[in-house]
């Protein structure tokens, strides 16, 4: 009787650990995906800001050249 009870407890513990482990893996994978999206959005925003800066600089340069002509 004691062996059956110990075996049942061991199976129950293994099942619980498996659920926790699988749940943790899903959480980690989801967090990794979220971080990749945030990084991509940040890079996209940075590229947009750099492009805007270049356009403003080109505008000012062309305006100053035109005023001296």
Please provide a written account of the structure.
The chain has 69 residues and is an all-alpha fold. Helix content is 97%, strand content 0%. The protein contains 1 helix and no strands. The protein has one helix at 2-68. The radius of gyration is 30 Å and the shape is rod-shaped. The protein starts with a helix and ends with a helix. The mean pLDDT is 84.
Name a few traits of the molecule.
69 residues, rod-shaped
How does the SSE layout of this entry go?
Elements: H1 2-68
Brief description of this entry?
The protein has 69 residues and is mainly α. 97% of the residues lie in helices and 0% in strands. The model has no long low-confidence stretch (mean pLDDT 84).
Compute the gyration radius: what is it?
30 Å
Which sheet architecture does the biggest sheet show?
A: none
What value does the average pLDDT take?
A: 84
Uncertain regions spanning at least 5 consecutive residues? none
Helix/strand class? mainly alpha
* Distance separating the two termini: 102 Å
Helix content: over 70%
**Beta-strand segment tally:** 0
Strand content: under 5%
């Amino acid at each position: 009787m004691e062996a059956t009870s110990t075996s049942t407890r061991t199976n129950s513990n293994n099942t619980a650990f498996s659920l926790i482990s699988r749940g943790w893996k899903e959480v980690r994978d989801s967090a990794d995906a979220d971080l990749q999206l945030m990084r991509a959005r940040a890079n996209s925003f940075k590229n947009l800001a750099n492009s805007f800066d270049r356009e403003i600089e080109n505008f000012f340069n062309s305006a100053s050249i035109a005023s001296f002509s």
